[in-house]
Design goal:
Distance between the termini: 81 Å
CATH superfamily of one domain: FAD/NAD(P)-binding domain
Shape: globular
Helix content: 25-40%
Oligomer: single chain
CATH class of one domain: Alpha Beta
Number of helices: 13
CATH topology of one domain: FAD/NAD(P)-binding domain
Radius of gyration: 23 Å
Strand content: 15-25%
Largest sheet: 8 strands, mixed
Structural class: alpha+beta
CATH architecture of one domain: 3-Layer(bba) Sandwich
Number of strands: 22
Length: about 475
């Protein structure tokens, strides 16, 4: 009898134990024998703060495009999130949105939604789902200091343990999911890969956030958003209330230079009253603050165009914030990471660990990045304080069209649905150029605009029981 040749064991290394790193591990685990996640810090066992995630202090939403992608990678995750206290919020059925063009109607539909929860809970549930797989293990308190290999092929990573000891770890595939602080551009340069293009666009937006005990039950309570209008030329002020687990509201107030919120607790609610509508301030007047105010100025849009490089080493893929980090006000980060992980898995399923995988996978990852980038930057460049790019004639024409769409969406279910398709990353931006959408935008909203936020009968009952009276509230 002839023995079959021994098959070499295959390994993938994921740099970073973030949400993107966990989803990357989920994407590659069926195509290798083992997955090693290299994490610079320790990973908590439950929904606790993880070092290296400063944005966790601010509210996060998982768009339906991203939630569907996570379900594809990790079936049952959304159900587990909801069981742990997260909320599924239909768009715009359970949302009160004051756009620059006016209040959106609460159209009855379920095809688009948000999952709202603290970032710590979302990370914890996804992490638990991934680490149940015995093929995936984490190496904590370890840093990746370099890529092994050449400009043609990456063969592993160099590691530095907490005690300073260095070692090499070989891999058939390295996935960089190390986030905004990724050193991949430097590592590529060390391998001789040059010509990397990047963009950095900073609107100067600052976030101030705080968690409150909600004065009303949060189950089925709407997300509330009062948005700035960059067309005015004035400093922009935005605010939102997002229901999260344990009967709490996560509240973020956001301002451009000249209107940036501070970390002073006494100034938080007065700032909310400077928004374009007072509904958030009126609600916070009846809520109990549970945390101090957390502030961040780290809201730069930054993108590396890896997919444009003429030379890209086999055995390496980057995704998540390692490729592009977005102004978090638009809520795209987690969803883009999930869609990027699905794109990687799709290429692996088609090509396996063959030559050509890495370049094709990197180009596939760029797809959801491009849509989210155009949405974020297309808004931020219209603030007068933005650095890195200014709006040109084409940008201003596009903004006028999008503004016209948004105006129409305040009274048109058809246009509101088309816009939500794109904003939740479920359809490409070209969906807004379909003949039916163009014609509807030309005609304008078929229904009159609302004067203010519209609460349902049940929501007004809950407000009355809590002895909360909101001026200008309609039903």
């Amino acid at each position: 009898m002839t023995e079959s040749p021994h098959r070499m064991s295959t390994r993938a290394v994921v740099v970073g134990g973030s949400l993107a790193g966990m989803l990357a591990a989920a994407a590659v685990r069926d195509h290798v024998d083992s997955v090693e996640i290299i994490e610079a810090h320790d990973l908590p066992e439950g929904p606790e703060a993880r070092p290296g995630v400063p944005q966790a202090a601010h509210f996060h939403v998982l768009l339906s495009g991203g939630a569907n992608a996570i379900e594809e990678l990790l079936p049952g995750t959304v159900k587990e999130l909801l069981a742990a206290g997260a909320h599924r919020v239909p768009m715009t059925t359970n949302m009160l949105i004051c756009s620059p063009e006016g209040w959106y109607r609460r159209w009855q539909r379920d095809s688009h939604y948000l999952i709202t929860a603290s970032r710590d809970l979302t990370d914890s549930v996804v992490r638990g789902q991934v680490l149940k797989d015995p093929r995936v293990r984490v190496r904590p308190h370890t840093k990746v200091t370099a890529l092994l290999g050449s400009s043609r092929r990456v063969t592993g990573v160099r590691l530095r343990a907490a005690d300073g000891t260095e070692s090499d770890l070989t891999a058939d595939l390295v996935v960089d999911a190390s986030g905004k602080a990724a050193r991949t551009p430097q590592w590529l340069a060390e391998l001789g890969v040059s010509g990397l293009a990047q963009d950095r666009i900073d609107s100067g937006i600052a976030y101030a956030s705080r968690v409150y005990r909600a004065p009303v039950p949060t189950r089925n309570w709407p997300v509330i958003s009062v948005q700035a209008d960059p067309r005015t030329g004035e400093p922009g002020r935005t605010g939102g209330i997002v229901p999260i687990e344990d009967g709490r509201w996560h509240v973020s107030l956001i301002g451009t230079p000249g209107a940036q919120p501070t970390r002073e607790a006494a100034e938080f609610e007065p700032y909310a009253r400077t928004l374009r509508h007072p509904v958030i301030a009126d609600l916070l007047a009846h809520a109990e603050p549970l945390t101090d105010v957390a502030v961040t100025h780290s809201t730069v849009n930054r993108r590396y165009y890896y997919e444009r490089l003429t030379s890209w080493p086999e055995g390496l893929v980057a995704l998540g914030d390692s490729v592009a980090a977005f102004n978090p006000v638009y809520g795209h980060g987690m969803s883009v990471a999930a869609l990027g992980a699905v794109a990687l898995r799709t290429q692996l399923s088609s090509l396996g660990l063959t030559n050509g995988l890495s370049r094709k996978a990197q180009r596939a990852v760029a797809g959801p990045v491009e849509l989210a980038w155009s949405l974020a930057v297309g808004q931020d460049i219209h603030y007068a304080t933005t650095e890195g790019k200014s709006a040109n004639t084409a940008d201003r024409l596009l903004q006028r069209y999008v503004s016209r769409l948004s105006h129409t969406a305040t009274g048109s279910y058809h246009v509101a649905t088309a816009m939500t398709d794109v904003l939740t990353l479920q359809s490409p931006g070209t969906a807004l150029l379909r003949p039916g959408v163009l014609a509807a935008a030309l005609m304008g909203p078929p229904r009159p605009q609302l004067d203010g936020p519209t609460f349902t009968g049940e929501e007004r009952r809950l407000l009355a029981e809590a002895e909360i009276r909101l001026p200008g509230v309609t039903g």
